[in-house]
Amino acid sequence: MTCVDCQAANPAGSMFCVACARPLAAGAPGLAPVIAAPAVLAAPAPAHVPSPAPAAGPSFNVPSVPPAIKLVELENLQPTGRVLPLPGRDWAGTLFLGRPDLANGVVVDLDLAALDGHAKRVSRRQAKLHYVTQAAGGPNEVRVEDWASAHGTWLNKARLPAGVSEPLAPGDEVRFAELVFRVELA
Amino acid sequence: MALDLTAALGRPAYPPGAPQAVYALLDLSAAAVAGRLPLDLRLVLDASGSMSSEASPGGRQTKLDLLVQAAEAMIALVEPGDHVTLVSFDDRPKVLFDGPIRQAQDRDAARAALGKLRCGGGTMIARALQGAVQGGWLPDHVARLVLVTDGETSGDEAACERLAFDQRGTAAWLVYGIGVDYNDAFLDRLAQANGGTFVHLGDMAAARDVFAAEMQVMGAVALTGLVAEIVPAPGVELTRVDRIVPHVLPVPVQDPRGLSVDLGDLDRVRGQKLLLQLTAPALPAGTHALAQVRVGYHVPSRKLLNQQATLALELVVDPLAAGLPGDAEVLRTVQLAGAGRLYTLGLAEAAGGNADASVRTLASAAGLYDGLGLAAMGDQLRTLTSDLATRGAFDEDAKRTLTTMARGAGWQPPAGTP
Known about the structure:
The complex is a heterodimer of chains A (186) and B (418).
Chain A: E1 69-75, E2 78-85, E3 93-98, E4 110-111, E5 127-132, E6 141-146, E7 153-155, E8 158-159, E9 165-167, E10 173-176, E11 179-185
Parallel strand pairs in A: 3-4
Antiparallel strand pairs in A: 1-2, 1-11, 3-5, 5-6, 6-9, 7-8, 7-10, 10-11
Chain B: E1 4-9, E2 20-29, E3 39-46, H1 63-75, E4 83-89, E5 93-100, H2 104-114, H3 126-133, E6 142-149, H4 157-166, E7 172-178, H5 184-194, E8 197-201, H6 207-219, E9 221-232, E10 237-245, E11 249-251, E12 259-267, E13 272-280, E14 286-299, E15 304-317, H7 328-351, H8 355-371, H9 375-391, H10 396-408
Parallel strand pairs in B: 3-4, 3-6, 6-7, 7-8
Antiparallel strand pairs in B: 1-2, 2-13, 4-5, 9-12, 9-14, 10-11, 10-13, 14-15
């Protein structure tokens, strides 16, 4: 596994880079690319985003069981071909979605501005995806929560109240303001 | 066996054919050892002029008032057989009390000595520390030095750190900082040189409870002089070691072929946990030696010295390993240690003037804390980064409080614990 920040080589199964301490590859909130590579994402990708590197053998972060989920963008109920790949469900943590605004302290893990987020009224602080460890073990549950957005985060056409998170399952429709996705298995 | 030494690996099996990162969580417990060991408790208390300022804006009590109350809470919990030394310092140290606690009157005398504390002068810590430890520590006692200060010491930092290092393995130092005028980096170095603990007391009113809780932990110490040796099997490298309980702190690994680490003493309340990261070479299917762990210790209550517990870690290599779920606690602990490292890295980036990198690093740490169910830490960390992004500086009190929280995140008191 190669660290996208410092390019150090790490053995398979590493969760953090031994050289720079940052989270590695698929499990890297905030630092590693989570937005898909240009081949998948039509919108211009940030300059620092390389293509997702294939894992060098199985790792904690890209497990074959349980499957990861991805968010497939829809336009008029049809896939646009743009996808938000997400970490595997062995990962634990919270991903922050929105439009970054470093000058005002808004840092996001998934930059929705790259998906025409501004035009689609996505807020800087739009939504959170929680990967929640289950007390009884098993795959981490992925839950979506609004993050003080102006135009709402919607799950299956119901607006999420502030402070309430709901689990995501394949087939669900999740909408960030006017940006719509369908949850699918990765 | 007085020491219960167990380990869990991050995964039940690993795939063949490629080098693998292997996480192992070591758990050290002394639950079966009963009895309270006597304490050799030495309090080194700041009585410089700044301690006469109010503890909170508009409050009636000074920092010294609350410090005395907190120290009294500790003294109230000493038992016959313990030994107490009270040293105050400003420009010069002053021994307020030094003696054994044989009966209630001795405890009252120690408490009365605290009433003699008066504020004034500057802050010179080294001589007070030297005065507190001179003459050595009592054998078969749990040795603790508690340092409380609200200011910067005057040019004797190096002497303090040398002394802290010399005391490593002899007495654990608990270093408390009050307010935001003390040098937190220095106090942290002091605690780490000794293998002890640095805690920011943001709310002096809470000091009484903090000290009383620490006394309960001291009273639950069962084993002393713990030294762990970790020796990887041939071909395996030791990559990283983190202490998780009682405090989340990285342990420097100088040599991938092995490490000896001083763990101080072991209490029945918290125990200790260590997280290892090893790198195993490409191996064929089968069961392979991964590492040997040896822990030396004493059991003072039974007069047993130089005991040893050993544990052999084995690695199962299986072509079907990829489909097996990992150990939730080990993976969670890896995330916790990783969040702690990111937090430290983010502070260092800010100190180096790289605010943008710091904001991103700390935001990443905040996300990890959220996922670990430590949402309060995640929220406070985001507030901290917002301050950095908008003002170009941290709120010092919030930063120091977060540092203390990050260190203590490996262990939480059971529900219902006062």
